[in-house]
Sequence to fold (239 residues):
Amino acid sequence: MAEETWRTRFHYGFYAAMEVEYDLKKIPLTYEQEVELGKDPIRLDFLIIKKEPNVILHDPIGEFFKQINIFEYKSPEDGLSIDDFYKVQGYGLIYKGFGRKVNELPVENITLTIVRHTHPRDMIKMLEDSGILVRETYPGIYRFEGNLSIPVQLVISSQLPLGEYDGLRLIAKGATIEDIKNYAERAIASDNERIKENARTVIDVCLDANKNLVEVKEMYEAVRGSFQRCFCKRTAKWN
Fold:
């Protein structure tokens, strides 16, 4: 698989994982993917927009959200540098003003979330050296405080507690049979076709990333068309 195609697969797995996470919570949100700004476009990876601005999310990632929430996702194949961090700030500021009336979207209504699988130690050190306070507010979730136009949080998926944000952990190497089984069962139990379709995307990316799970992939491909009824029964033998 070509490198660019592989990165694209990770990104679509990320979009699907975020939608599963919040659709399961039945929170009134809308989602936008790969939003282009301008004729020579800057492309925003993913947006979560509150349909009701005053709704407060209570999960560790979502409690940070304001009305407009811009995500920058870095696949396991991508780096994350200090320049990438400030580019994300720039994306948010362009989104604020692009094609709008003056202050139609107040900057106070925007948050930024960067998601990566591993810890970007060099970037964190450079931010701290520049006077930015970096606080871990929850295992794997870091908030940045200081001279920033838009609030930013960093989510390191490999550091998130087991059983939380499972989709983000699955779209990287290191997944297990049990991880996939639990995620599939949770999606199937929702009885929601959109959630199940997004979960299928997450599992597809997971199996591509974890080539060692050959038996799982063969079984999954055999039953994915009837995901709702068969997957849990077939995966029972993997325990």
